[in-house]
Fold this protein.
Amino acid sequence: MIELRDLAKRFGGVPALAGASFTARDGAITGLLGPNGAGKSTALRILCTVLRADAGTAAVDGIDASRDPIGVRARIGVLPHNANLYANLSTRENIAYYAALQGLESDAGATAVDRVLDTMRIGDIADRRTKGFSQGQRIRVGLARALVHDPRTLILDEPSNGLDVMATRALRDVIRERRDAGCCVLLASHVMQEVAALCDRIVILSHGKVAAAGTPDDIRAATGRDDLEDAFVKAIGGEREDPRNPPSPTQAAAR
Amino acid sequence: MKPAFRVFRKEFVDSARERRALASALLFGPLFGPVLFAVVVSFTVSLQVDGSAEAIEIPIVGGDGAPNLVARLGQRLIDVDPTRFEDADALRDAVGAGDEKMGLVVDDGFGQALRDGDPARLWIVADQSNASAQIPLQRLRAAIAEYSATIGTQRLLLRGIDPQLARPFAILMDDVSTPSGRAVLLLGMMTYFLLFAMLLGGFQVAIDTTAGERERGSLEPLLTLPVRRRDLVLGKVATATVFMAISLALAVTAFATAVRFMPLAEIGMTANLSPWACMKIWALVAPFAVLGAGLMTFVASFTKSFREAQTYTSIAMTVPPLPVLFSIFNPLQPSLALMPIPSLSQHLLVTAVIKGQGIDPVHALLSAACTIAVGALCTWGAVRRFRSEKLLV
């Protein structure tokens, strides 16, 4: 369970988050949707304790990220945006390093590594060095690394970036499996279709604030739009100029 | 400390597989010093030894007027060649252009002045800034001065005066330097190269594990793991330290090997680089690896990319050996007051070992403690940097 309350963060005077509040429940996939620059990555980074909030709180299972960052980090599995592997290490070594730093060593570590190699279906590349891996392979190893300690909370930032159709489907299957196992999955994306296809609940972020939140149906009802994309555009306030030809999220962000 | 060891283990394997880091640690670092050192020493030795027993040949103008001088120089293995130049100006131009090292010009009135008892003029034409001409020049002057003194003595004797009266002082030289002591001036540079080789051996690792990790995008996921930043930095600094210590061991071995092939004996020098002395040198310099690794990691943690880190660590790398350079030109003796100064204390202690002198264990301990303390301070700075969110933003 993830709870963000009145989260605010500025970078050199420019606000990235301006009082965002939302929750992501266990056993559900929550999609954090918003145009580029809406504050999605900043919110996730505060939650992962690599950034500190100027105001407000971020908590995982009731543990405050600013008070007990190590406690939060032990509970989460993270796939940051553009995260990379160690090219000189094999897939297995990459995952085993994370397992060791999660406190899983020798037999327990090896068992955990074998389990995620199996879950992510990357047994065939387990002992290859990751130099030259495709984007799909990198994402799968990165996700395996994030899952090795069997976290109850999974935080993913633009996980399907650069993936082809098959790789995207495989990724979605894994994410659903985690949800069905009772995990809390928080996924940030700027791709409407991705969120619509995968998420049980959607939080729309715009200009550092939550513009709308709820199930896809809730959001359609709240914005009075049947199409989720229209609802999204309405929610982020990008509709004022021409209702029949809404600007893209990128244009909205540039405004 | 356990997580720090896990970080160290991974970074060590990772770096050992990185060709760039490995080449820097095992090849460039240890070889750069000894090779450069061998070149410098061979050159210095050749300057000092060159020609001391060989005949030198110099052109002369007007040699016909001074047959006795020419014969006398010939006895001193200085052959004069009167055929090469027509007049003094041509000789001057040739020396000025560097075609001749030096030449001798005999004044037209040389013979007459000698007979009259007036100073007979001789010109030595030479370029004093030419280092390779210094030794032959000294020999020429000494030979002429000796001949001049002989003639002077004969003149006094002819007039019934004791020549000793013209020599109020007897200057005797008593050189107390030992053969090893004489080697120190040259071998003093060795510490400089050792420190440099060591820093070179670990700086790629320090960059790779900080700025490199950040640039490749593997730092952010690492920071989301339940590991204290202190342990991350300790593991990374430890990796660079071990690489530097290995580089140092290789560099000391390379030096000990290179010194065997250097013509030190020709200039009356010996250097104490026995295996036992090499181990002592390694142990005395190794604490500096902690400082080097801490400093490189600290500097690299402020940069955003591998290239940027390379620029700044290269600059930072020139700073630690500076006290050594200072002391090469201003010789100092080991003292308690100097031991807290990193690099200078290592230099003084290593020099003592090479000289074959004993070293005070208190000095060695103080040197190690203070050097490691500075390294710890740099490491703490890097930890602070890792705790700051500026590391990622």
The longest strand of chain A covers residues 14-24. Chain A touches chain B through 35 residues (CB under 8 Å). Strands of chain A lie at 2-11, 14-24, 28-33, 55-60, 63-64, 76-79, 153-157, 184-189, 201-206, 209-214. Confidence is low (pLDDT under 50) at residues 240-255 of chain A.
